[in-house]
Amino acid sequence: MAYAQAPKASGIAVPAAADLGFKPKVDLEEELHFKFWNPLHYYRALNQHRMRLNLPNPGQFELLNKEIKTTLLTNFMFDGGRADLAKILSPNFQVMHTFQLGLPGQPSAFEFAGVYADENTLMHGKMDTDFNLQARLNHALSKQLQVKSQAQLMTSDAQSMFQVEGEYTGSDYTLNTKAINPSLTDGTGIYLASYLQSISHKLSLGAELLYQSPMPAIQETSLSLAMRYQPSEDRAWVAQTQGANALTTSYWRKVSDKCEAGAELQVVNLPSQGRREASCSVGVKYEFAASNIRAMADNYGKVSMLLEEKIAPGFSFLVSGELDHLKGENKFGIGLNLES
Question: How far apart, in Å, are the Cα atoms of 240 and each of 55, 142, 156, 173, 255?
Answer without folding.
Answer: 22, 30, 32, 17, 24
